[in-house]
Amino acid sequence: MKAPDLHVALGAGPAGSTVAAELARRGHAVRLVDRSGTGATPNGVARVRGDVGTVEGARAAIKGAAVVYHCVNVAYHLQIDVMPRIQDAVLGAVEAEGARLVVLDTLYPYGETHGQVMTEDTPWNATSAKGRMRAALDDRYLAAHRDGRARVVLGRSADFVGPGVLNSTLGGAVFPGALTGTEVLGLGDIDLPHSYTDIRDVAAGLATLGEHPDGDGRVWHLPTDRARTTREVFQQIERKLGQPLKTTIMSEPRPFGPFDEVFIGSYAELFYQHTEPQVMDSTAIQETFGIKPIGLDTTLDDTLAWYRAFLARNQH
After folding, report:
1. Could you tell me if 66 and 10 are in contact, meaning their C-beta atoms sit under 8 angstroms apart?
2. Which pLDDT tens digit goes with each residue over 278-291?
3. Cβ atoms within 10 Å, residue 275
4. Helix, strand, coil tally for the chain in percent (to 5)
5. Domain range summary for the chain, segments of one domain joined by +
6. Residue 316's pLDDT is what?
7. Contact of 139 with 113, CB cutoff 8 Å
8. Cα–Cα dist 308/102, whole Å
């Protein structure tokens, strides 16, 4: 017999782990699934090994689930080949098991917006290969819902920021350098407004969608504080640390710091996100479900604290 309240998070990166922690905090039974099944596990969460690359593996991973949260991601250079296969497996599994599916999504399907504010009504005009791939996946998710094969909802996030977030333009390329007085990387034009979504708002938004089936069958923008220029974000970090940042601006894609040649080669087609404003509006989810995003000031305080501890643990 299916447990009525089992929520399963697929993927144990920052998003999946933070979602699992948020669901446990809300009192749900939670299973966190990834390919290793080992590592730091949030309180109240059962972590298990699983491979969602096949329908059989995905069915085993989500068995007994009422709600499944798809937070699996892969390296940029593998996405076009791997993400559609994972979609096939996860959709097939939730269809067979009768679970609802909450999908963590990106802004890539919109493509270049030429500075227009992105809402859930913004056209999907991606020209990049990864943007077109994401748009095709999203079309298939929503078609599966419309056709009654699965109950699906999508939550889109801007660039991640927050405790535990390393691989983001406001992550490992910024905070370690800020705290150690070494180089901090800014991409493109840092005087353009750019939305950043706190990873805990990603989790709260997805958990809220998981608890509200009435939101199914559409895209929602996850709760995100108002956009600032990246320069303003850097200045706020400087004020908190009481010292200037040693900022290096990367005006075009090239390997730097945590971004190696393979990553940059695959990311280059998305570099438009740093040469035009990236402003995401999350009014709909905030007003519909009464949730507010964490303010940037708190996000930066908590992220700096997390990185201080992270750097202390990793000193050699």
Report:
1. no
2. 999 999 999 999 99
3. 14
4. 45, 20, 40
5. 6-159+198-221, 160-195+226-280+295-311
6. 62
7. no
8. 33
Residues 196, 158: Cα–Cα separation, whole Å: 5
The CATH number given to 6-159+198-221 is 3.40.50.720
C-alpha to C-alpha distance for 20 and 33, rounded to whole angstroms: 10
The Cα 198–Cα 48 span in angstroms is: 26
How large is the average pLDDT for residues 159-166? 97
Asked if residue 123 has pLDDT above 90, the reply is: yes
Question: Which among 109, 78, 83, 96 is positioned nearest to 11, based on CA atoms?
Answer: 83
Q: Do domains 6-159+198-221 and 160-195+226-280+295-311 have the same CATH topology?
A: no
**Matching CATH number, 160-195+226-280+295-311, of 3.90.25.10, 3.90.550.10, 3.20.20.70, 3.40.640.10:** 3.90.25.10
User: Which residues make Cβ contacts (< 8 Å) with residue 165, sequence separation at least 6?
Assistant: 14, 171, 199, 303
Q: Is 4 exposed, middle or buried (0-12, 13-18, 19+ CB in 10 A)?
A: exposed
User: What is the SS3 assignment for 215?
Assistant: helix
How far apart CA 15 and CA 303 sit, in angstroms, is 15
Task: Calculate ∠ Cα 55-59-63, nearest 5°.
Answer: 175
- Tokens coding 134: 């994401």
